[in-house]
Amino acid sequence: MTDIDIAPVLLYDGVCGVCNRSVQTILRHDRHGSLRFAALDSDFARAVIERHPALQDIDSMMFVDNPGQPGEQVRIRSAAALEVVRYLGGPFRLFLAARIIPARLRDWLYDRFAAIRYRIGGKHDSCPVPAPEVRVRFLG
C-alpha cells in the first residue's frame, strides 16, 4: 500500500456548484498535493458509509482520514471543513479559530448554509469532470 492509498479523502456533493468551486480552491492551494476527492454518490463514498452506518443519512462534506484502514476516522459538517483548513495550513490556519465556537452551533450554521447551497452556487446535472492533471486524485 502506498502513501497515496491512505491519503485523506474529502467527500463532497458532486453536483453542488459551491462544493465544486471549493474543491477547485483546495486544489489550487494544496501544498501537499495528496488530498483526494470523491463525490458523495460515488462507490468510494458508499463504501465509507457502509463501514460507518451512522453516516447513512448524512448529506454533508466528509473528511476521511486513513481511508479503509483500521484507524479510519470520518469527520462531518463543520469538523470536516476545519480538517480541510488544517490540512491546507498556511494562512488558512486562521480559520481554525472557529474551533472556539461550540460544535453544535458550528454545525447548525453549516446546515443552514447547506440548505441553500444550490440557490447560492447552482446545481450541475452531473458531477463535473476534473482537469486531466488532477483527475488521478478523484475517486469513483
UniProtKB/TrEMBL annotation:
It comes from the Bacteria. Pfam families: DCC1-like. GO terms for molecular function: protein-disulfide reductase activity. InterPro entries: DCC1-like, DCC_oxidoreductase. This is Thiol-disulfide oxidoreductase. It comes from Mycolicibacter senuensis.
